[in-house]
Amino acid sequence: MIGRALRVALIALPTAVGAKLAAIPLIPDGDSARELAEKELSKPEYQEAKPTLIDQWARAVIDWLIDLLTPQHAVDLGPWAAIVIGALLIAALIAVLLIWGRPRRSQTGRTGAVLLGSADDRTAAQLRADADRAAREGDWIEAIVLRYRAVARSLIERDLIAPAPGATAQTIAREAAVPFPAEGESLHAAAVAFDDVRYLGHPGSAARYRALVETDDRLGALRPQALPEAVSA
Fold first, then answer.
1. Which of 185, 119, 184, 191 has the alpha carbon at shortest distance from 151?
2. Model's pTM, two decimal places?
3. 85-98 confidence digits (pLDDT tens)
């Protein structure tokens, strides 16, 4: 019995050993390993993570500055090294501020074509001309709407307000009252006239249009008060 069992075990041994060896991953040779690595690195997630040319340039500049600031190079370059490096850093900082500095309010206002809920990139002068044309034709609703748009556009062009694309007529009136506090009531009345004919369906009139024109003319002639942002600067 023992001998029979031993023979069975010896017969089964190669099969078990073969299964164990099959489970062990093969170690690729040099060419296979290179192909596997190239295939893995060609996947989109690796390509997207590759540094751009700008990243490589910035890294090269940083490495150069770090290498330049080492004690050995500082001794080789002499006392002028710190002055030269400081001047380079200041010049780079000025360039960054000039290129990516905070945009002025006028740039924000002029790039946005949405004004009072509609896409409109006409200048204040063009809006006034169109409003006067509508008034001559007796279309008081269109005249009032366009004239108030002209008021808003004129203030934007003068860098006095910077309304958001979704700003309402009353929001613009309140913002415009900051540089023109004495015109707060007239600006509010102008915004009410705009809302009445634009959204509430009220009829316009020559009197309301004339009042809006007078407000527009006064704002154009008045010198605005200093804005809080300018005072703090």
1. 191
2. 0.52
3. 667 767 766 765 56
For the chain, give the longest Cα–Cα distance.
Answer: 123
**Rounded to an integer, what distance in angstroms lies between the CA atom of residue 141 and that of residue 138?**
9
Is the pLDDT assigned to residue 108 strictly greater than 50? no
Closest alpha carbon to 115 in 83, 143, 157, 86: 157
Q: Reduced to 3 states, what is the DSSP secondary structure of residue 119?
A: strand
CA distance 170 to 151: 13
CA-CA distances (angstroms) from residue 65 to 59, 85, 100, 110, 130? 10, 8, 22, 40, 60
Query: Which position has the token pair 């690595």?
Result: 37
Domain boundaries, the chain: 55-100, 106-232
178-230 pLDDT per residue, tens: 999 999 999 999 999 999 999 999 989 999 999 999 999 999 999 988 665 54
